[in-house]
Amino acid sequence: MRLFRFAEISRAMPGRVGVEAAAIALGLAAWLSISGCQDVIGVAPVVADDCGDGLVAAHEQCDGDGQGTGGETESCDADCTLRECGDGTVNRASGEQCDTAGNSASCDDDCTVPACGDGLVNPSFEPVAGSPEECDDGNDDDSDDCRNICVRSVCGDGIVHNSGSGSEHCDGAAAPDCPGLCSAECRCRLPVSCQDQLMADGGSPDGNYLILPARVSSPVSVFCDMTTDGGGWTAIDPGTAVTMGGSVSAVVDTGQTTCRIDAKGLLQASDIGGSVLVCQYDIDLGFAFNEIRTSQAAGEVLTFDAVVVGSHTTDVRDHIANPWGTNYTPGGWGDVVIGTPANPTPVLSLGRATGAASYGLGQQMRWLADEQVLTANDTVLRVQASETGGQSEGYRWISGRIYVRLAAQ
Asked: What angle do CA 397, 401, 403 make, to 5 degrees?
């Protein structure tokens, strides 16, 4: 069967071309479509491409204003479908800034351009390169549950999280309300030693610091030398020693002797003629150390009063090589030695620092030597004073500092 085309109709009706011929052709095509005869005679249906004419055709959801003015409106997309955020078509007339049919790196699911602080969480958007948006509370409070870069607040991010559900005291170097350091759990803590303070804050200057060693319940004020040989030195003086709970005992006592700590923390070791006394002062610092130092700096020199009667003298000689408890020579010579119980012998000696000498009433024994020595690891600093002989003699530690730290091993 022959197929009718517009050109053939025109030839059949030479006087009626143009609009009338087109109308006849379209009418015939429509009739054939309705009747189902197009397949038989080979005439395809014709649908006019009239989206944008402002009139809603049967195959259109909308078209402009529907009154003859075409184009995009708040309710109709340019493709004559009803506007809907998420349809993948940007409708500027409705205020859409973008439309990627859901969240994307460039568009939120409400068809606005994503921004940290807009109150919308878009996991596809990265406010900071490499950090997808985790939260967005729409405020500029950096201390609450959601950071200002739209990631959740966590301990270790350098921002003190103390509002919302946060309970951080500090975070790393950010510790405005901490008297000491910041723990790994973002809680304020005091250093256990001067070395701990220096390791946490390498810029710590010389000065007094509060420390809280494991064995004490209240903070202890100590002087920290943060300069000498790399710093980290904790100073122990008579007052600090008694605060740390140092214990004194007579490890050798053969007569009328005195081995005690007075109210000011001053160690006194003295004997009455004919006795032997070794007075031991163990100070548990509560932190490990293996290096001990003395200093000749002003106000730091270890100083001992000679505790004597009348013309008697305290006689000092080097006994550093002797094991603990035997740092004296029968017949009159004693010593003050320093070290740790873990080491079999002392490592510092007053007799070695001063040389063999005798000290009478009103005289002082001064540790005039800058010494820095290693000893066995321990938490206990031991100061042992001894005297023997036929006179009433001894020592009182009245001032000065013994410095300790843990050397690298």
From this structure: 135
Tokens of 47: 């649908």
Query: What's the pLDDT tens digit per position in 199-217?
Result: 988 999 999 999 999 888 8
Parent domain of 18: 6-41
How does pLDDT run across 152-188, given as a tens digit for each residue?
Answer: 999 999 999 988 788 888 998 777 778 788 888 998 8
Residue with tokens 């009103």: 362
**pLDDT of 135 over the 50 cut:** yes
Asked whether the beta carbons of 315 and 332 are under 8 A apart, the reply is yes
Is residue 381 within 8 A of residue 340, CB to CB? The reply is: yes
pLDDT (mean) for 110-134? 96
Polymer length of the chain: 409
Quick check: 323 and 339 in contact, CB under 8 A?
no
Q: Is residue 23 within a helix (H) or strand (E), and if so which, with residue range?
A: helix 19-35
What percent of the chain is helix, strand and coil (3-state, nearest 5)?
Answer: 15, 30, 60
Q: What residues form DSSP beta bridges with 335?
A: 386
Distance between CA atoms of 212 and 217, rounded to whole angstroms?
7
Is 119 domain-assigned? no
Largest CA distance in the chain: 155
Q: pLDDT category, 43, cuts 50, 70, 90?
A: very low
Q: Cα(289)–Cα(285) distance, rounded to whole angstroms?
A: 9
Q: Total structural domains in the chain?
A: 2
β pairing state of 233-236 and 402-405: antiparallel
**Which CATH number is 313's domain given?**
2.60.120
C-alpha dist (Å) from residue 74 to 11, 82, 92, 97, 107 = 47, 9, 8, 13, 19
What SS3 class is residue 175?
A: coil
The whole-angstrom separation of Cα 261 and Cα 242 is 8
Q: What is the pTM of this model?
A: 0.68
